Amino acid sequence: MNKTMMNILACPIDKNHPLELYEIIEKDNVIFEGALFCPKCSRFYPIIEEIPIMLPDELRNKKQEMEFLICNKKNLPEKIITMARPWHL
Q1: What's the distance, CA 23 to chain centroid?
Q2: 48 with 68: CB under 8 angstroms?
Q3: pLDDT in tens, 53-83
Q4: How would you label 30-48 residue by residue, b for 16+ Cβ within 10 Å and e otherwise?
Q5: Chain segment 24-54, per-residue pLDDT in tens
Q6: How many helices (H) and strands (E) in the chain?
Q7: 83 vs 50: CA distance, rounded Å
Q8: Which of 53, 1, 47 is CA-nearest to residue 27?
């Protein structure tokens, strides 16, 4: 995901803008892995292989996102790891 996308991305649930960006792997203004966080509804959206996965709760892949959280628990803030919606560790 190119960082310039942050100017247009909003939470799909409550339309909040701007979202918080947490970079895990970044190079040349491109986020390869990271997370977006909506401070209004406390939802997180993983960025996996450059793609922000911003789906409504009922379409989200819980197994994939739990694996993402487990693998990145040292790289993401506590609010995402322990309190984010729709699931957390």
Answers
A1: 9
A2: yes
A3: 999 999 999 999 999 999 999 999 999 999 9
A4: ebebbbbbbeeeebbbbbb
A5: 999 999 999 999 999 999 999 999 999 999 9
A6: 2, 4
A7: 24
A8: 1
| Residue 26 structure tokens | 């970044």
Which tokens sit at 3? 């960082």
DSSP state of 19: P
For 38, the 3-state DSSP assignment is coil
| pTM beyond cutoff 0.85 | yes
Helix (H) or strand (E) holding 80: helix 78-83
| CA separation for the pair 54, 89 (Å, rounded) | 19
